[in-house]
Amino acid sequence: MKAEQPNRQLIEALREQIRQKTIELAEAPAGVGLVPLRIACAMTSCQHGRHCLDHIRRPRGSDSATDRGYCRDCRQHVVDLPDQGGRRYGDVSEQIETCLDQQNELIRAHYWRVPIDLWALNRARRLGMQELRQRTAVRIQTALVTPGPFTGRTASYSGDAIAYAQHATATCCRRCAAYWHGFPVSADQVPTTPQVHHAITLAVAYLTLRLPDVPELGESGVPQIKSELRPSAREDAEADDLVFETLTNHGDPAGLLMPERTTLQLADTRSRILIARKMPMDQRGA
Ligand SMILES: [Zn+2]
Ligand SMILES: [Zn+2]
Description:
The chain has helices spanning 8-25, 92-101, 106-113, 118-127, 129-144, 161-169, 174-181, 193-210, 233-248, 263-278. By secondary structure, the protein is mainly α. Helix 3 packs antiparallel against helix 6, helix 5 packs across helix 8 (193-210) and helix 6 crosses helix 8. 37% of the residues are buried. Residues 172-173, 175-176 line the site of one zinc ion.
């Protein structure tokens, strides 16, 4: 399946609508650079309008199962998520609506807004948009169509722009695609062509939105990030202080910062922030 070039006007309209949606959901979003790149799927921050709509995941403890479009934490109805029968795959307004609805789920909202790390950005620049679109189509086929017990669940959480697109648009694995896009839950069942096309279109729209400066054809001379750019232990500790200070000052009204239990994930984030700071300006790219 081929990924077509998205309509620029449509992408601009989508960009503005997502901006408005973000303002509506969280009056003061977390500062850029303080948002971690790794996040757990079932995390929620319901009071800030960031829920978890995965009704397929087994309920916790004494909780009963939730229905499509309901948050599994606060149990509120969040968005309408029709099953396969109620969908208009290929309809542009449905695609835009889905992107907007995704701002209500913590994991999606996070990937829709998190700064794309330097590894991912540089790799995208080396490939160019044309190649990225083709690879997105292939990646989504592999994640959502190829049958097997581990269908999907291979998208990394950083270092790769296509993986960002997959997590944001719920095209990362069969389960996310099942509750967001009405894909069959069972990995043995093959999704339809319009369904797969819908998934690819959303992921490509994401890449077009988030990587406006990546040229159509790959760039040469994009710097490789070397190990000496990695932060020292002292810089690590300073970054920790900064993140925790932000948390204790309630500096994250959007609820997108990682709780402290995830030391490893914070470490992953801050090394990227610090590398971005250490890299000479002319090598940072966009
Ligand atoms: Zn909730
Ligand atoms: Zn997933």
